Task: structure prediction
Amino acid sequence: MNCQESEMLIHAYLDGELDLLNTVQLEDHLRECAACAEASRNHQTLRSAISSGGFYFKAPNNLTERIHLALQEADQAGPHTSTSAQEISGQMPSQHKRMRWQFSWVLAGLAAAAAMAALVVWRFDPAISRPSRDDLLAKEVLASHVRSLMANHLTDVPSSDQHTVKPWFNGKLDFSPPVKDLSGDGFPLVGGRLDYLEDKPVAALVYQRRKHLINLFAWPSDSDSGQKTVMRQGYNLLHWTQSGMTYWAVSDLNSSELQEFVHLVQNHSTRAPESGH
Result:
């Protein structure tokens, strides 16, 4: 991907509307191109300033009611204003005509203002236009999983020995990820690598189920939460927090077997993580 293509796709990327393949290619380009990365940060800063400040107009709560009332009054005024002799003869006073013409323009202006206000609120209100944090994180997790398969960079430390994989992270992370060999349960450990999610380094542990690869991402968390399931573009993603760690498991493995894998990880992750050195 070149800089021109990046400029064309950056807005869709920041809005969470870019497809997976272009997302992966764009993120790779942003890591390599300082100018495009700076442009992306500037766009994100502008979006945040617009959505969090007082830069967008919020329509009054009673605007819709006022428009409906004005329209009703206009409809009611029509039949009652045709009783004069001049109106019967088709000669409505010019002042009356001018007032009705002006009133029509007022109604049109109110309708246009309402439409514009609705558009602005929809475009810039974070609760409406912005994807949630979990949605954005799910997109990052899936992109990292697919990238690891496409770029032939599945592992930094290829090994089925948990006592080889776990020490490899020492000095690379400020925490010690829980690494378990689940080969006895049908999910052998393949290895591990260093990855990045939400602009911070995380541990990526790779497991296998027949020909299906599973990426298990882990990093410290301040709270515990229940398990949540997401499906994106044919991939299953499960995430939860437990014992001071956040976990995201992603694979094209069927949902029931991925659930089985997650339960095994949860049963082996009851102790708090150790501090890295």
